[in-house]
Design brief:
There is one protein chain. The protein has 9 helices and 10 strands.
């Protein structure tokens, strides 16, 4: 799933390649992708593109007086193409969900792999009209997101810190992968209750949030859209690396599975050497 660093890199890429270009046609190929109907997609045609903004994991492309907003969800992606095929795409063929054709050639595709169709596109007058954007918490890389603002978000939270970091209404843009990376950098168990952090632990976790995301954004800067997924994977230290050695201490990275996701952590770095209970695995072993 694209998270804040990758979406920020896509924003930069679109700012460079899309700004000033005129939209010739917008071709929806998957019925499920479009979440709004007024204004219609056709209202974007013939309009120039302006700056692209990021709201958490949402991209908002300014086109004429409207905003083309997309959330790539778990398996979506944006593919820029300098040259598009001359024949129009056929609905229902492959992962292609929507195509934007630009005057003078080129454009981009929104694609989604798999059977769960969660990729979303909205055409709105104001990005705040999108429910997912309206409920977002603060951006963790914003200049005014300081240590005290972070501490206020954790105060009174009786949930596990892993879930708090992933909650978009608390902090915008962090997903499954970077929450694992942040907690590993901070040497914190993903099951630790958010409200149980003392002042020093809050400061340490805040610094890990800013450093982990900031470094990921820096690595992704200037990377072509098509190479961002590989760049993300290469920079992860524990997420998706179950069974591999921890790059910090050499212990084996372990995993906890849930219904539709999993987390990875290092026992030595994060849990005092004790493996976390994996209830899903425990049930299978009974």
């Amino acid at each position: 799933m694209p998270e804040l660093p990758e979406v920020e890199a896509l924003r930069e890429y679109l700012d460079e390649h899309l700004t000033g270009r005129v939209v010739e046609r917008v071709l929806p190929l998957a019925v499920s992708v479009l979440k709004t109907y007024d204004p219609p997609l056709s209202a974007l045609e013939g309009q120039p593109a302006g700056a692209t903004a990021r709201y958490g994991k949402f991209l908002a492309l300014r086109i004429g007086g409207l905003h083309f907003v997309t959330h790539l969800a778990r398996a979506g992606w944006l593919r820029w193409q300098d040259t598009l095929p001359p024949q129009p795409p056929r609905p229902g063929k492959g992962p292609l969900a929507l195509r934007v054709v630009l005057e003078g050639g080129g454009g981009f595709d929104l694609t989604e792999a798999g059977t769960q169709k969660r990729l979303a596109v909205y055409v709105v007058h104001d990005p705040q009209e999108v429910p997912g954007i309206a409920r977002l918490g603060p951006d963790p890389l914003a200049a005014d997101f300081d240590r005290d603002a972070f501490a206020a978000l954790l105060a009174g939270e009786r949930r596990q810190i892993k879930g708090v970091l992933r909650d978009q209404s608390v902090i915008a843009g962090i997903g499954n992968a970077y929450s694992d990376e942040i907690l590993h950098a901070a040497k914190v168990s993903p099951f630790k209750l958010a409200a149980s952090f003392d002042d020093d632990q809050v400061t340490h976790l805040y610094e890990a949030v800013r450093a982990t995301l900031g470094e990921a954004v820096a690595r992704a800067h200037g990377v072509a859209a098509g190479a961002l997924k590989a760049e993300k994977k290469s920079g992860l230290r524990v997420h998706g690396r179950d069974g591999e050695p921890c790059p910090v201490c050499g212990d084996t990275v372990r995993s906890v599975s849930f219904a539709d996701s999993s987390l990875q952590y290092c026992p030595t770095c994060q849990t005092g050497g004790k493996p976390l209970a994996d209830r899903r695995l425990s049930r299978l072993l009974k």
